[in-house]
Amino acid sequence: MSDAGTSIGGARNPVAAGGSRLVIDGVVKQFGGHTALADVSLDVQPGEFMTLLGPSGSGKSTTLNLVSGFAQPDEGTVRIDGVDMASVPPRRRNVGMVFQNYALFPHLTIEANIAFPLRQRRVPRPEQARRVAEALGTVRLEGYGQRYPAQLSGGQQQRVALARAIVFRPGLLLMDEPLGALDRGLRESMQSEIRRIHREAGSTVLFVTHDQEEALALSDRIAVFHEGRIEQVGTGHELYLHPASTFVAGFLGESTMLPAERSAGGAWSVLGVRVPAPSAVPDAARSATVVVRPERARLRAVDDARQDELGLSVQVLEDVYLGADRKLRVRFADGTAGVVREVAGSMSPWRAGDRVEFAWRPADSAVLPGSAAPAVL
Amino acid sequence: MKGRVTGEVTGTVTGTVPAAQTGGVTATAKAKGTGTVARHPFAVVAAVVVALLLVVPTLVVVPISFTGKASFVFPPDSWSLRWYGNLFSDSRWTSALRRSLWIALLSSVLATTVGTAASVGLTRWRRRRWAAAARALLLVPVFVPAIVLAIGIYTVFGSLGLLGTVTGFVLAHASLGVPFVVISVTAVLQSFDVQLERAAESLGAGRWAVFRQITLPLILPGVLAGALFAFVASFDEILVSLFIKSPFLETFPIRVYQSVDNDTDPTVAAASTLVLVVTTLVILVAVRISTLRTRRLGT
Ligand SMILES: Nc1ncnc2c1ncn2[C@@H]1O[C@H](COP(=O)(O)OP(=O)(O)OP(=O)(O)O)[C@@H](O)[C@H]1O
Ligand SMILES: [Mg+2]
């Protein structure tokens, strides 16, 4: 009895491996005349969970392929633990990869699928069996070893793919939209599985998704891709609170983006209301964008102005009650769309059709150079 | 007789491969009927008529092989197995049969190896247009009139000293078998997920390991079906064989052909029936294998 207790307490981490450091430096990749990646650099720390987030076609998979070795950069380098990967074929990179469609070998049992990388490395049979069993335990699929992939559900296949990618203890794990094909409930439970496995395995993870919630839920840091470039790298918190561009602000979470202009006299205004001069904007700039997150704004009566707030008149277009919170969509005088979120306990009485003021504290907003593509209703 | 035998060879070319893909129908015309022209009544009638036209003359040989008399009268009025007895006791027939089976086996192995390697290689070729051209080149034996091929092979083999040798037969027949392998393997490769090879490679497998452990097992049904078609293509080949044979090296179909001229008893009908049975059985197995594949991969 006491034996069992100590062995559980002292259980060696089944898939422990030090994470690798990945450095992508000035990478350019073109397909024909089309630039898929234009100067991408990224430094991923050992053990870090880094997510590549961006819209379709922004170059996320291309970046992953350069790391896995299935494509070669036209310029720049990919280094894993300091070693330039230029002349290292995929099979020698020791990088685990989870494909979007799982890519399980249909003619092999689950056990044989997971043992595949060990077999290639000529790991002795008993050791193979032991590690396969451990990996099956890690993804909670004990007892499924003798089945074939076609006999498993989508979520189970996903776990097998994960087990197969970690069983050889790669220092770097690549996942290209691994949860893309799963339904919502399953996605969320797989997200926590992935978090747990990452914690246990300790390997560096490069994870691709175009789902911002998934990125926020999983990542240590997020790299936001846009048209073959990285717009910003940072923690979810940093990206949400301090977006570096209107693209990042628009892509990560909801926000209201208001056009700011500078008059000849040097004073800044938003839709005719004077605002403090933004610090993050070049002196010569004539226009900028004010970004207000929905939970940082409030709707107030026209005569309810407060000293520390800026206010603009809006019309409420829609109010959507969501249980724990409520979302109100509004329209500014020039047609710009805005959004406000109110949490339970402090909900305002406004309804669709009301004319009110959209108010925020300048300190709670971000001012970004350039003008956003206006969201007009 | 010559016309009939070659007719059967080309019949195999156009008929059995599509049949293998549409799944389970062996009669040439029927396979075409179900494959392309849905179930229009007229199409069905046409298919049956064509099938009868193709099959009936072939089947006349079967009853004659069981006749009790030493004549080709159809229908026979008495029955016996004596022509089969003759066939299997006459060493001219048995040695030709053994030789034909041996040549068919060797040329099938060769055609399958070359054809599979080429098909797999061609799907990896980045330049699609060149790959298509190369694939068409491998199919040439199907399109070029057999007589042209025969004369070409005769000329080349003559200068290489391959006429009348087993090697010559194997090479010639293998080149005729390659198209079947290419067609059949290319068909399975169409539904093969190349992502699996990338996965295998990323998991540490070298090129050969990827082929041996992933690609080959998954395309095996197509490879085996192709091998069987190539076997048949050799086993019932007559035209090219007539050009490259020697009096000392004859295949079974050549023996049949010559027996029609020289012998006057129905042993030749028994021999033809044997060819028919072997060919049909092998093709049935090939078709069965192709349908097994679809079930296992659940597509
Ligand atoms: N093999 C290729 N040949 C030509 N163009 C390509 C190739 N691979 C990618 N591209 C192009 O490069 C760009 C980036 O593609 P990539 O697959 O990296 O996008 P992504 O961010 O992964 O998008 P998604 O979310 O849709 O998967 C796209 O415009 C795409 O069309
Ligand atoms: Mg992609």
TrEMBL record, chain A:
The keyword Transport applies. SMART domains: AAA. Keywords: ATP-binding, Nucleotide-binding, Transport. SUPFAM superfamilies: MOP-like, P-loop containing nucleoside triphosphate hydrolases. GO terms for molecular function: ABC-type quaternary ammonium compound transporting activity; ATP binding; ATP hydrolysis activity. The keyword ATP-binding applies. One of its GO terms (cellular component) is ATP-binding cassette (ABC) transporter complex. Gene3D superfamilies: P-loop containing nucleotide triphosphate hydrolases (3.40.50.300). Coiled coil: none annotated. Pfam families: ABC_tran, TOBE_2. Its EC number is 7.6.2.9. Residues 22-252 form the ABC transporter domain. It comes from the Bacteria. InterPro entries: AAA+_ATPase, ABC_SmlMolc_Importer, ABC_transporter-like_ATP-bd, ABC_transporter-like_CS, Mo/tungstate-bd_C_term_dom, P-loop_NTPase, Transp-assoc_OB_typ2. This is ABC-type quaternary amine transporter. It comes from Nakamurella endophytica.
